Sequence to fold (600 residues):
Amino acid sequence: MQKISGDNFISEIVQKHNNDPQQLTSILHDVQEASGQNYVAEPWARQIAELLQTPISHVYEVLTFYSMFSTEPKGKVLIEICNSAPCRFNRSHELLAWCKEELGIGVGEITPDGEFGIAYTSCVGACDVSPSLKIGEDVYGNLNRSKLTQLINSFRENRPELREPLICQN
Amino acid sequence: MSKLINLISMGAGEVAPEDIKAYQQIGGFEALKKAMSMSPAQIVEEVKAAKLLGRGGAAFPLGIKWEHLLHIEGEPKYIVCNADEGEPGTFKDRFVLRQVPLRLFEGIAIAGYVFNSPKAYIYLRGEYRDLKEKLLSIIDKAKSAGFLGKNILGSNYSLEIEIISGAGAYICGENSALLNSTEGKVGRPRIKPPHLAEVGLFQMPTLVNNVESLAAIPEILLLGGQRYLELGHPDSGGSKLISLAGHCLQRGIYEIPLGRLTLRDIIFDPELGGGIADGKKLKFFHLGGQSGAIGHPDQLDTVYSYTDLRAAGLSVGSGAVVVMDESVSILEYLKAVNEFFIHESCGKCVPCREGNRQIHKILDRLLIPGAATRTDLATLRRLIDTMTAASFCGLGQTAAVAISTAWKHFKSEFEANVVDGPEHYKLAVG
Ligand SMILES: Cc1cc2nc3c(=O)[nH]c(=O)nc-3n(C[C@H](O)[C@H](O)[C@H](O)COP(=O)(O)O)c2cc1C
Ligand code: SF4
Ligand code: FES
Fold:
């Protein structure tokens, strides 16, 4: 598992957003990204609340309301497969089956090394290239079996150049 | 002659989205210049004449909304651009944000000038965070060129634009939930009245408009409201961006003149959808998003305009056109729609939170031979009616539109598994 980049990463992120409570969702997005496991742990949520001078209950309310946030680790590379109707009836189950074959895990699970997780998401606005999936901020569409392997390998081998051509630019 | 039109999409794919000079060469920022030589009331008159209906889904006339806000007392007034685009099957705002963001910024600047707003917010859905940095850098460029920021075009008017990130909640697209979320709160809808024009963002008068609506403003001013109206339908001027998805051959974004094309053109014309993939037959289409109506092939000759679609029991909504072929079970499809609403219900009110779940149980039973009874159908009808009538916001009020429209078109498939069974469900639901 990736170690968080230092003790004060929370205050750095909050400062980047000018200690502005209105930016809470952006702060949580950044913390989640920096966590290396796509989640916000309780001590971090407490620290955010203190820095923003807002009740911890408010931070948790926001954290648990939005589906992009998690209070539990979700894996370093979280593969989010679109499960909305246009994708669901356009072979999104194949994407899931291929991910399962590659990683040996299903939806809501994490590989034992914590490297990969799989989740469902609602429409990511890439229905023109469906079935679509999202990893981090990037969306991938029109995938076939070999492109999916290439995508997963690019993370395994830490070679971003392998996945760049696959990122949806529409 | 092309069936398409390019008002909003002009320059898309040809002009680099961040290239201000190139945007100016195709007429960019001319509308802003023109606007700033006009009075706010004159601008509002043009928008009214254009009969531009809100492109976010609710189809409220922009001119009327703007006129109302113009007459409301209170400063500052805020502009909020709704870029939450959460309706599955819809990706046209993403197209605008990616391809022609300067046209959107120009529209926001014009709206800002009309209401003398110091600040505009773009509420960008969490799933589009990949666009945020790019958009911010384009805003900076437009500022340096004098089209945004301090003293726009050398005038006394200044406008800052801030981008707020959503985090995956469809309900935040509802305008009052959007404002709550923009304020850093949880995105649940507010009770209305008070109207958002009066008590909006941070309790101040606020304009909420969709990305596509605001991006249409520059062309309205350049052409004049009357000419813009003439390009579309007499009741609803101009063009609409269609998101074409599902089982048609050529999925994508198409800008079409309102009132000129039929649904058949959209799905089958070689310039648009190009027909159904894999040689299959069209079974149904789903218009306007998951909250919209399901249409039958018999309705293919309906003209695509707000008026004609409404008369046919359909709607424009977000402009989504999801095409499904004969291999799809209507009940399975409706279950997917229903699961979306279960997931996205904010939980504030019972009819929506609980109604959607109960509907799911019945849809499940309808899929199993002999598992559902006539009583289930009666219960389903009652659940739909209750949820539609008693839900707190538009999400619950429209969550069953797909089910009730599909029920009419595909009655036999819908009721194929139903038996005249025991009446115990009647007891259970009272
Ligand atoms: C559940 C729900 C979700 C909505 N989602 C969106 C959305 O994603 N984008 C949008 O522009 N409008 C959405 N709307 C409509 C907005 O409430 C509002 O009418 C719209 O932003 C006004 O802008 P317009 O008049 O320019 O369309 C939604 C409404 C409801 C009830
Ligand atoms: S209708 Fe649904 S989304 Fe709207 S307030 Fe009620 S529970 Fe929330
Ligand atoms: S439905 Fe999957 S990206 Fe839109």
Remarks:
- Chain B has three domains: 20-229, 239-325, 330-429.
- The radius of gyration of chain B is 22 Å.
- The first strand of chain B starts at residue 78 and ends at 83.
